[in-house]
Amino acid sequence: MKYVIIGNSAAAIGAVEGIRQVDSDGEITIISKEPYHTYSRPLIYYLLYGKTDEQRMKYRKDDFYEKMKCNTIFGKAVTKINDKLQQVLLDDGTVISYDKLLVATGSEPFIPPMNGLDTVDKKFTFMSLDDAKGLEKSLSPDSKVLIIGAGLIGLKCAEGISRKVGKITVVDLADRILSSILDEEAAQIVQEHIEKYNIEFILNSSVKSFSGNTAVLSDGRKIDFDVLVIAVG
Q1: Tens digit of pLDDT for each residue in 30-41?
Q2: What percent of the chain has pLDDT over 70?
Q3: What pLDDT score does 107 carry?
Q4: Strand partners of residue 223
């Protein structure tokens, strides 16, 4: 039996372990567009904050793939699935055949349409190790960072970089931070705590457009920044 798994995070690793409980000899191929050993995505915040390193972020031990007898194709993306021929096509033209296929790629960051976003030079999402690495390289002690989104992803990003930059501004359309999980009273308590770390919140507002490193909000206000992080979902 040939198993192909697209993805290399928690769901994919769980599937590998489940397969090996019932099939010790089947051929397993893991395909991931990221070039890394499986790692815990929530820990990218701790990496930026300095509480962990890439080795400790790994979701399984270094010899996991070898012990599980997995073929790995990292740094390659699947561009097409041909279910009739039971094949996947990679971005380098390679064709991989399968008997059983699992798509376990997880979610993708949502980037809302905003006029002028293409004029922003340093812009990032915050859901992968590459995001964290790219963001860290762009920061300096004087950087002004604009984060769009006051949910868990945006706030974890803000906390992770708070000691590395000069100022952080967080903009969110909701009337409070963490609006999906906190009521007004709880949100206010958390916000007041976070604001002690030189993090400013602009709520009940959204970014209407960009002109280079200037964001124009829905109420007409303008925010100058050096680095943009989009963390809206």
Answers
A1: 999 999 999 999
A2: 100
A3: 86
A4: 215
DSSP conformation letters of the chain: -EEEEE--SHHHHHHHHHHHHH-SSSEEEEEESS-S--B-GGGHHHHHHTS--TTTTBSS-TTHHHHTTEEEEES--EEEEETTTTEEEETTS-EEE-SEEEE-----------BTGGG-SSEE-SSSHHHHHHHHHH--TT-EEEEE--SHHHHHHHHHHTTTSSEEEEE-SSSSTTTTT--HHHHHHHHHHHHTTSEEEE-S--EEEEETTEEEETTS-EEE-SEEEE---
User: Is residue 170 a contact partner of residue 200, using CB atoms and an 8 Å limit?
Assistant: yes
Task: Measure the N-to-C terminal CA separation of the chain; round to a whole number of Å.
Answer: 37
- Res 80 pLDDT > 80: yes
Q: Residue ranges of the domains in the chain?
A: 2-103, 117-230
> Which CATH code of 3.40.50.720, 3.10.350.10, 3.20.20.140, 3.50.50.60 fits the domain covering 2-103?
3.50.50.60
pLDDT above 80 for 233: no
Superfamily of domain 117-230: FAD/NAD(P)-binding domain (3.50.50.60)
| pLDDT tens digits along 98-143 | 999 999 998 888 898 999 999 999 999 999 999 999 999 999 999 9
Under a CB-based contact definition with an 8 Å cutoff, are residues 155 and 214 in contact? no
- The label of the residue with tokens 């590459």 reads 130
Mean pLDDT value across residues 33-61: 94
Place of tokens 């993805």: 7
